[in-house]
Amino acid sequence: MPAIDTATETLVTTGNQAHSHGPGSPVPLQARSERVTSYDVADFAVPNGREEEWRFTPIKALKGLFADEAGTETVKVEAHGPDGVVVESVAADAVKAGKPQDRIAAVSWNHAPETLAVRIPADAELTEPVHVNVASLGARGYTHLIVDAGRHSRSTVVIDHTGAGELASNVEIVVGDGAQLRVVTIQQGDHESIHVAQHDALVGRDAKLNHVAVTLGGKVVRVSTNIRYAGPGGDAELLGVYFAESGQHHEHRLFVDHEAIKCKSNVLYKGALAGDKARSVWIGDVLIRAAAEGTDTFELNRNLVLTDGARADSVPNLEIETGEIEGAGHASATGRFDDEQLFYLQARGIPEDEARRLVVSGFFNDIIGKIGVPEVAEHLHEVIEQKLARTAALTQATKV
Predict the structure, then answer these.
(1) For the SUF system FeS cluster assembly SufBD core domain, which residue ranges apply (predicted)?
(2) Which of 16, 268, 316, 350 could staple 345 via S-S, CB 3.0–4.6 A?
């Protein structure tokens, strides 16, 4: 297997200033705590692609979403769940789990036609997931969703994004003290669709959040997930699965802001790429502030490149302001098929195409098993099988 790099883009900020990437770097690399957050669109310039937070993103494709103007369609959003769950329209500032961290998030916050809140009552224990279906109808639209899990509740919310066109969405998540919440966000828009999302989560005292990002479709998908803690003992597990095909750009950015004491975070993202100009980007930022004693954190990203012409960028970052922690680490690895695994399977009579399918399935199996929603896991297996079939056909065609 490829060697694991545990030192890529590491920042240890105690006593140091923000630094650049070297001679000729156009913009200094800022600590995450220094970046602008605002509800005012004017506080964010239209990016030119040289900024640290935009340098991997195909910004030309997002031109329409940078414009500070109303959308050209109303996105269809429907939510339903077990008895006791409240679904209602609320004021945009009804919950403030976090501020917009880029221009598109600010535009979406200001121009979403309504804010839909899904509220799980305190002490509720839901045996079935709450489903939120977001259908983009083919033009440009914005959505704002609030998920509010009451104290000591137990629940799962599945947010399914489908359709075409351009979509900018904000999701604010509040996990009450002692609550356990699982949020699964699925991006499976049409092949030419564009989706840019910001998820902000505030994890309460002794609360647990499982956030799962599944990206299966879309020409350009960029999901930024930000985690903060409202009290000690908070625990956040961030999981992600993505599979980019020819011409698709799938980008996931994470920021875990440890400020409260004795909190945990664990990040595990896995992706596969197949086809010419298939592209994935994973940025994992973890900030451990000076007051966050007792923090325990780890982040891991792994990518499997299945064909020539595909590219994966993986950048784990750590900013540590105190040495009084339980543990902190990160790793990333990008590589092709493990030839030894393929040889082992083929030596036992398994055809090459089937052997490759088994290797890829095995690569994803551990993380799929952690998703915790059987219907999502089953759907993900089916889509991966379809993508692998297309990859096999593509590989065979290049051999002819």
Answers:
(1) 142-363
(2) 350
